[in-house]
Write a structure and sequence with these properties.
The protein folds into 3 domains: 43 residues, no CATH class; 36 residues; 75 residues, no CATH class. Helices cover 41% and strands 15% of the residues. The chain has 8 helices and 7 strands. It has a 3-stranded antiparallel sheet with strand order 1-2-3. Helix 4 runs parallel beside helix 6.
Length: 169
């Protein structure tokens, strides 16, 4: 198969016009039609009372342009986190952003004993309870942040104002 033929086949199956925003993009879902990644992520973070069934929950679907729950929209995709059970935008391992953030912090703040450093438990709680866990996950992608947190957790850097002022980053 030629490269151009493979590209055409890919575009035919995976690209199209998003029914929500009208942009040509890769398909993230196919509910009431092709949904792009941006609209999918927005839908997977929309909560409220479903006008169809009256339940207060995630509203990823649309009926007549109004957000509705997955059941009333006929969406078969399950949005429940494999750990906490909340309906949310799911990441790897079918975990919500908050559970993913929790796991990532457990790893970065581990003190060498398999547990979060006792001195950093308040930081762990503060970050896992933040209103937008996606922001915390974005912050943790920085290698500088990862190195700093690991150094604090293992004691390689003291947890003090002086140490922070002397730290180059």
């Amino acid at each position: 198969m030629s490269t151009s033929s493979a590209q055409e086949k890919y575009e035919r199956w995976h690209m199209g016009e998003c029914v929500r925003c009208g942009r040509r993009a890769s398909k993230a879902a196919n509910w009431e039609g092709l949904i792009c990644r941006t609209c999918y992520e927005k839908a997977a973070r929309t909560y409220g009372i479903c006008p169809g069934c009256g339940t207060d929950r995630l509203l990823p679907g649309r009926r007549d342009g109004i957000p509705t729950c997955r059941d009333c929209s006929g969406i078969t995709r399950d949005f429940r986190c494999a750990r906490c059970g909340i309906e949310a935008h799911l990441l790897g391992g079918r975990l919500c952003e908050r559970c993913t953030l929790h796991d990532r912090l457990d790893t970065l703040l581990e003190d060498g004993t398999g547990r979060v450093s006792p001195a950093l438990i308040p930081l762990h709680h503060l970050l896992t309870d933040m209103p937008r866990p996606k922001s915390g996950l974005a912050w943790l992608r920085s290698t500088k942040v990862q190195n700093l947190l690991t150094a604090l957790a293992t004691g390689a850097m003291p947890l003090s104002h002086e140490a922070f002022h002397e730290h180059p980053d």
